[in-house]
Every structure is written in C-alpha cells, then in structure tokens.
Amino acid sequence: MNKKIKLLSALVAGVVGFGMLAGCGSSNGGSNSGKKSDKELIVWSHLMDNEVKEVNKVAQEWAKKNNRKVKVVKDESDMKAFLQAANSAKGPDIMFGIPHDNLGSFQKAKLLAEVPSGIVNKDDYANPAVCNAVSYDGKNYAIPLAMETYALFYNTDKVKEVPQTMDDLLKQAQAIGGTAFQYNASDFYFNAAFVQSYGGYIFGMKDGKYDINDVGLNNEGALKAYQFIQDLAVKYKFIKADINGNIAKDNFQNGKSAFYISGPWDVDGFKKAGTKFALAPIPKINGEGVKSLMGVQTAFVSGKSKDQDGAWDLMKYLVDNTADKLYEVGNRIPVKKADLDKDAVKKNDVTSAFVEQLKTALPMPNISEVNGVWDAGKKIQTALTGKDVKKIAEDIQKSFVDSIKVATKK
C-alpha cells in the first residue's frame, strides 16, 4: 500500500489477537465444476502502469499455455463502480493489486470468492500477519502479493551511530538541534506506531475477530503516546504544529533533518535529489520493536465471476510468477520467504531495512468500521500546540466510537 495512493481506510488493531485469526491456505472455499470455459478472463488492477504491463505479460503467458483469452486493464474505480461492473457481463474476474484494508467493503457486498484449498500455503509466507490481513471469520478471501510499512530514514552525514532505542534517537536529535527529527505528525497513519507501541490500540479482539465495541485510544498507553508526540513539538521543538508530509519530507531531503520516518515511496525522490541517507528499523520503545502499520497488496477473484475455475488457475499463475517483476519495477516487497531470500532483495540495504521493520509491524484491520479513525490525525495535531493530551484522548475516543455507530447503521 503506497501511502500516496491513499486507499488506506484503516489502522492496525491492538497489540493482541492477530495470531487468533486463520492463516492463508486454511480455507476450503469451492470453485465451480471442472467444466472448461472459453470465456475471456478479465483482470483489473490498481497497480501502477509499469506494474500492470508486467502483470499483463505473465497473464498472456498463461493464456497461450491454456488456449484462453485474458484482458488485463488498469483500473482506478471505487467499490461502488466495481459492484456495478461485477453485476454486468463486462465485470472483472480478478482484481490483482489492491490494498487489503479495502477488502472489508468488498466482503460485505459479497464480492469476494473464497480462496480454494491448495492455492496458497501459509508456511510460504515470511510474516503470518499477511494471511490474517485477507481473512474473515476464519476463511480466506484474497491472496497476499506484497507488503509495506514505514521505517527510519537517517542522514549519513549527520548520524554516525544508528540509534537502537527511541531514547537514543532523542538524545542524538537534541545534540544536533533544530528540526533534527521529523515525520508527518498530522497523519494518524504514522502516529499509530507510537500509540500501539506504548499500549494503545484501535480495536480489541473477541473470538478471533475485531471487537468494534472495544476501542483503546484513550487508555494509559495511548495517553503516553500522545504525550510523546506532543513533546516532539513542545519540549524538544523538532516539529511545529503545522507539520505535514511535504514539510517533513522536504526538510529531510534538503539536509535540515537528521531523522525522518516514512515509507518506500520517498526513496527514489531522495536518490534523485542526492540526499545522503540510509534506513533502519524505527528504534525500539520500551525494549520492543515498534508496531508500525503494515499494508498488504492483495488479489482476489470476484464472487460474481462466471468462470471461477479458470480465474483461480490464472490467479495462481500470476501470484507464482509476478513477485520478481513487481519488486523490480514497483519496489513491492515480496511476502514469500523464497522471494525475500533472493539476492536482489536480500542484498538491497533499503529493502532489508523495511523487511526488518515489517517483523514487528501489524496489518491494518480489514473491516470497514475503522474508516473514522483517520480523523484522529487532525485531533492529535492539536497536541502539538500544547493542549491537554487527556482531553485530546477523550475527543479521539468519542469521535471514533461515534463514527463506528454511524457505520454500523448503514
């Protein structure tokens, strides 16, 4: 999930519970009979143009081998448009490349076909959490393609020793002074890493599912996180209340900041600008790896497809043969152990840093009720002005709970 694409509609669940969900490959979902179809299979993709081009090449390989026709198209429609198309004769059979946190709306509308057994094996994946990201009620409805998170960029001219703890980072940043440590503190996407690492959470878990009645944005851990974020502005004066993504990025790119938290989407720009940087996992908080957010690019077969067997056969071929190309042209970090162990990935220092951070990252929940949590970013930003964090926490909790009530009435 490229943050810039901003299809993100959710934040990660609490520090507990992901292991309670079913993993990839445990589903017994069915396909239709073994009768061969000559229907043209249609693949929609939200991936970038150059990535869609590579997916199409692989799809045409499958088509030639199976004497079938396949059409791969770039698509930027929303769920409503997909629903309309899916119910028509021109609807797609496969969606290849969509952030997992969008799956909740599709699942509610019964647009996701259950993954048949034998398509994927959970043991193939480096982080079991990618499987949880595509599961509902113990069943799998999509296949993980790639994963991403954010990590710590640092200026190699200003930083001689990579900080291992957040306390170390703050000490170094204080010694450097000025805007030494910045990130987009106005966006809850990044702030959630601190909220969850200090003990807050978005949803609790109940019976292996997200419990929308259990919100932890106003507990002791969340308050500590809001105070930490406020200190960055009020106590240390690293950031100002008007901070946003562009300001933080430009300050790091221009050498004004020594530390910067962001994702892989900024790497190419920094390289082109000549910024001297390297990457590392976000320094530990309370002795543990930081719980940043994990986005998972996924693929699914439409529940409305008239050729489920053909669609799943094509899907498996695409999944098995596109990981290298998506990494090469789109910097998509593979999810399977075998792909991560290839030299092109393993020997890339930038990718390795994100892979290390992904070990403690948690997937954004894939249910639609989390949409309202994004407003928390605006409320946390008021903490940067020095306002009472306890009152801010109460406002965040109430606002999110109210948004959940509205969402569940729809």
Can you tell me about this structure?
The chain is an alpha/beta fold and 410 residues long. Strands 1, 2, 3, 6, 13, 14 and 15 form a seven-stranded mixed β-sheet that branches. A four-stranded mixed β-sheet has the order 8-11-7-12. A two-stranded antiparallel ribbon has the order 4-5. The chain has helices spanning 49-66, 79-86, 103-108, 129-132, 166-176, 188-197, 220-234, 245-253, 267-273, 308-330, 337-340, 343-346, 349-358, 376-381, 389-409, and strands at 41-45, 70-74, 94-99, 135-136, 139-140, 143-148, 151-155, 181-182, 204-206, 209-211, 259-262, 277-280, 293-301, 333-334, 362-363. The relative contact order is 0.21. α7 (220-234) crosses α15. The radius of gyration is 22 Å and the shape is globular. It folds into two domains: 3-148 and 293-363, Periplasmic binding protein-like II (D-Maltodextrin-Binding Protein, domain 2, 3-Layer(aba) Sandwich), CATH 3.40.190; 151-290 and 367-409, Periplasmic binding protein-like II (D-Maltodextrin-Binding Protein, domain 2, 3-Layer(aba) Sandwich), CATH 3.40.190. Belongs to the bacterial solute-binding protein 1 family. Keywords: Signal, Transport. One of its GO terms (biological process) is maltodextrin transmembrane transport.
Give Rg in angstroms: 22 Å
Tally of alpha and pi helices: 15
Order of helices and strands: EHEHEHHEEEEHEHEEHHEHEEHEHHHEHH
* Portion in beta strands: 5-15%
Q: How many structural units, i.e. domains?
A: 2
- Morphology call: globular
What's the CATH architecture of the largest domain? 3-Layer(aba) Sandwich
Low-confidence stretches: 1-22, 29-34
The counted number of beta strands is 15
GO molecular function, one term: maltose binding
Family: Belongs to the bacterial solute-binding protein 1 family.
Keywords: Signal, Transport
InterPro entries: SBP, SBP_1_CS
